[in-house]
Amino acid sequence: MTSLNTAPDLTGRNLSKRRAFANRTATLLIGLCVLIAALPLLLVAWEVVTRGGSALSLAFFTEEIPRNYRTEGPGMGPAILGTLAITGMAALIAIPIGVLGAVYLNEYGKNKPLARFIRTMADVMTGVPSIVMGLFIYVAYVVVIGEKVGFGGSLALACLMLPIVIRSAEEMLRLVPDELRQASAGLGARKWRTTMSVVLPSASSGITSGALLAVARAAGETAPIIVTVGLTYIYKPDLFYGENTTLAAQIYRNATQPFAASQERAWGAALTLIAIVFLFTIVSRVIAARFAIDKR
Amino acid sequence: MTATATPEAPAEVDLGGEARSRRADWGFRALVTAAGLTVLAVLGLILVTTSLRGWPAFEEEGLLGFITGTRWAPNDDVFGTFPMLYGTLVTSLIAMIIAVPVSIGIALFITEVAHRRTRKYIVTVIDLLATVPSVVFGLVAILVVVPVITPAYQGFANLVSPVPGLNAIFDDSNTGRNYITAALVLAIMAIPIITSIAREVFATVPETDKQAAYALGATRWEMVKGAILPHSFGGLVGASMLGLGRAMGETIAVALVIGGATSMSANLFEPGNTMAAIIAQQWGESSGLHQDALIAIGVELFAITVIINFLARVVVRRAEIKMKGAHS
Fold this sequence. Notes:
The structure holds 2 protein chains of 2 kinds.
Chain A: H1 2-5, H2 17-53, H3 58-62, H4 77-109, H5 113-126, H6 130-145, H7 150-175, H8 178-186, H9 191-219, H10 223-228, H11 247-255, H12 260-290
Chain B: H1 9-12, H2 18-61, H3 63-68, E1 72-73, E2 78-79, H4 82-113, H5 116-131, H6 134-160, H7 166-169, H8 179-203, H9 207-215, H10 220-249, H11 252-257, H12 275-282, H13 288-327
Antiparallel strand pairs in B: 1-2
Helix pairs in contact in B: 2-13, 4-8, 4-10, 5-8, 8-10, 9-10, 10-13, 12-13
Pfam families (chain B): BPD_transp_1
Subcellular location (chain B): Cell membrane
Main location (chain B): membrane
């Protein structure tokens, strides 16, 4: 009788030792996992900032790249220009095609078998290794025109960005409320009109944010660049003529050399590359946060 | 009544170039459909063009010989790629053994343990980890980690040398550029992908299931074991497969730290190679049949990763459908 009158003990103090121990150990292990992931990030950030920071100077951003690994001193200008130009051209190719593809999937294809197949294959395409994209562009473009050029790298990066842009843009189009489409149709606008002047503008911030993330990802790619773009030490603003280079390719090239001078340039290039990638990522975040449409 | 005139007015209204507008609609539809089809076109073109270019290498060895041959000697026109397939499988499987439990732990921490503010920080850390370019991971690994970790490998090899079995897998090491280092780098790079999908999977566990477990007196760990994990098993399998596909295709970080030997070894402290890494390492000095063989390795890698990714997507989608069923 008395036991019914006392309130049940909900504090967990009477937990058996074994169960309490298992619970505490599990929580500890789960917390440890977070540490395991955070440590490499801290290590990378610390090493790149301290070692790369000492390599940076104004000359590092503007000088041409020394031809000899052993030559002391700065110079990554052509690689910085190459990274921006090649990635920018890739974005110019991949973003329009990707957004239009997303329009097909969300506005026209919907649940038709073809659209579902394209959706699955776009997901599969995000998993295609970047080196394979490089080999593809090498065979289909570089061999055909007969020389390695910056534009080849742009094509390879565009292939890598395409599925990411399609899938993220489609997610954003899906968030556009159907009322907007119906209102536009009610005013007599045809579907292409509705899409171009109502649907796409209202999803534009989300699409931009997703596209910038894809650009950031592409800017750090190395494998397709070394296969299709070749190597240069001087400024090559023309993507359609002559071999080119990027920061990522320069890091790879200099990292394996035993000479302090080239390693220092690799660290400087790494810091510059990470700064560029983070810049794109942060801008993407800000756009996504500031101009997000209401999720319904 | 003069009002009779007004109903006629709408008939006069021209809603604007009817035929032209219809043509524009049709053209737009064709344009976006073509854009959607580029995905299929690119995937098809990858398969066709690279296969054609790699064909001479397949022909030289025979398809089976190319895949199962154990000797890679470009100077003698011998192209057996099994050591690279072995290296790819060994490094990415070890990477998964490390990355999958860690990622599940992180996802559980984010969804179940962390308070709202800490949760935001941890999500940021994982996102940042995903944005670091692979070549930077490779740079840090080869110049910072390898010199420090090599003596640790040797110490571990000495420690397990009396244990039969283990002493074959962890034998003497004379270099830090080996299978294990590559696997460690791959594990770190796979964590963000697996974590983000695992989080999505955990988010679909019905709140009622969790509350029911707590109401029965379960501790948090018992709730995770009893309510979350059984519900998310399929999704986690899919997440792991996606991570595996990514690890198998990773090129540059592995090319920097795996050493570049083209032989096989059961000793994980020996240098080796993977399919993706050997293409990057030998591309610059290759020509003729050697280059065709590298492209042929690319075809093999493409086929493997596409199959794994396709299966992973199917598994994830199945799991999603099942989970949605559980909701309603």
